[in-house]
Amino acid sequence: MKKFLKLFMMVMLIPLLSLFSCSEEFLDAPSENQLTPGDLPEGVTAFDGIAESLYFKPWFTFNDKFLIAVGDMYAGNAFTFDGAYAQFKDAQVTSQNPILTEGYVSLFSVIDQSNNLMSLVEDRKSELPEASYKNSIAIARFMRANAYFYLVRTFGAVPIINKAGTAAQPKRNLIADVYKFIKQDLEYAIENLPETSVKKGYVTNTVAMGILAKVHLTLNEYTECADLTQKIMGKQYSLIQDYGNLFSSPENNNSPESMFALQWKAIATEWGTQNTNQAYIVPGGTGITGGGDGWGVHLPSISLQSDFEPKDTRKKSTIMTDGDFYPELLKNKGGFTYKKILSSTGANFRKYIVGSAAERNDVFFMKTSQNTIILRYADILLMHAEAILAGAPSTTSASALSAFNEVRTRAGLPTKTILTRNELFKERRIEFALEGQYFFDLKRRGLAEATAIISQQEVGFYSDDARTALISVKITPGSHYFELPLPQSAIDTNPSLLEAPVPYNFN
C-alpha cells in the first residue's frame, strides 16, 4: 500500500512533462521540462510513475473534445448548436480551430512523454533487469505508436520525433514513413510487452497486435490484418453480455472486452486526470449529473438514429429516444424518463453517462472515472471480417461471418449468411458510435465512396417542439476532407511544417 501511495503521489506531482511545454512551443523544440533520474523517489523506477501517467494525463485534451469532434461530429454521427464545434459539424475546419489545436498538442505530448520515459530508462539501463528494461521501452513505444496513428490519419504528414531532445524546427515526414515508424514501434511492443497485464488495464502484447492489425487494415494490408486478428480471437478477450456496461459503469472498467483504454481518475482536487465526456453529453436541464454540468453539447444525428435496426439492444445504451426509461439514472427520484423535446434532433446520447455526484462518490463537476476505450474485442471481430472482405462487395466466408455475427448476436439481431461491405461498415457505425471511429472508418472506404455516403447523411435538426419539422442539412465533402489542416499555431512557431514532407532517416 505504501508503494502504491508513493507511486500515485509521484504521478500527481509529475509536472505534466510536455503537456504544457509542448503547447507553448509546438514542436519548435521538445520539452525541456523533463524529469531526470535524480528526480525519481528512492526505490521507484522510471517506468513505475511515468508509465502510469501515460495512460491518462497527456491524452486529456485529446479526449476532452478532439476525439468526438473529429471521429464522430465531423463525420456526421453527431450534431450540435455549440459554436465551439460548429466547424466540425459543418465540415469546414480551419487551421485556427482551438479544438483541432488542442488535439494536436495532446498527441504530441503523448509522444514527448513516451520519448522522455525511454530516455530515463536508457539512463538507468544498467540498474534494470533486461526484461524490465525492454518492457519499459515497449510501453513507451506502444503509446507513441498510438499517438502517431491518430496524427497521421487526421493530419497526414507530420514530423517524426523519435527521442527526447530532438533538434528544433523538425520537418514533416512522408506519410509512408510515419506508418513504417508506427509499425516498428508496435512490432517492438509485441515482442516485449507481457502476455498478461502486470496491472489491470495495462496493455499486453496481444493489445499491440490488435492496434497493429488496425494499422494494416488502414493500409489495405488485408492478409496481415486477418492473420493478426485470427491470433487474438477466442483467447484472452471476449464480448461482455451487457453492451451498456462498457461506457456507463466505472465498476466495469477494464472488462474482458476492453483491450486498450485511457485510465481516468476523478479526483476532486485534480484537473486533467478525469474523463469530461459526461459533462458534454448529459441532456441539459435534467439534473442527471447532480451538478452544474450536463449541457447536451453532443446530439446524435438524425442519420445515425436512422441506421439502428429494430430491436437492436445497443440503441438504448447508445442514444436516448422518446419514452426510454433509465432506472439507474436519478435513482433517488425513481429513475429518468427521456423526452425528445430535450434535443433538436429528437434524441440524446446515453454513452459515457455515469450518473449523479449526489449518488456516486466518483463523480464531480466535469469529472468521472469512466475509461475511454480505444480498442475493444468487438473491434477485433469486425476488423477480421473486414480484412477477409478485402475490399470486395461481399463474402460468404465462414470465418468472416462468424466474427461479424458474434457482434450482431450480442446486439440481439439476426445473423447474416452473406456479409456485404455496406453491412459491415453500417455495423461498425452503430457498434462504435461516439467512440471516435466513424471518421477513420469512412476514410478507409476511399474518398469517392465516402463522399457518396456522407453527402446522403441527414445531419439537420427539427425546428418545432414535436420534432417533426425538419430543417434538412447535408454535407458534400471537399477533396481535402480527409486531411485536416495543421494548426496555425504550430506553423507560426515552426514554418518548416509548410515545406514538402521529407523521407525519415531510419538509420
Question: Strands of the biggest beta sheet: in what spatial order?
Answer: 1-3
Average pLDDT confidence is 91
Structural class: mainly alpha
Give the overall shape. Answer: globular
Instruction: Give the percentage of residues in beta strands.
Output: 5-15%
The number of distinct helices, counting runs of at least 4 residues, comes to: 20
Task: Give the low-confidence spans.
Answer: 1-44
Cα distance, first to last residue? Answer: 44 Å
User: Strand tally, please?
Assistant: 12
What integer value in Å does the Rg equal? 22 Å
For the biggest sheet, the summary is:
2 strands, antiparallel
- Helix residue percentage: 40-55%
Description:
The chain is mostly helical and 507 residues long. Helix content is 43%, strand content 6%. The protein contains 20 helices and twelve strands. The protein has helices at residues 2-13, 18-25, 46-53, 60-73, 86-89, 98-123, 130-155, 175-192, 205-218, 222-232, 245-248, 277-281, 302-306, 314-318, 377-389, 398-410, 421-431, 438-444, 447-454, 488-493, and strands spanning 78-79, 258-262, 299-300, 319-320, 325-326, 336-337, 348-349, 372-376, 394-395, 419-420, 461-462, 470-471. The strands form six sheets. The chain has a two-stranded antiparallel sheet. The chain has a two-stranded antiparallel sheet with strand order 2-8. It has a two-stranded antiparallel sheet with strand order 4-7.
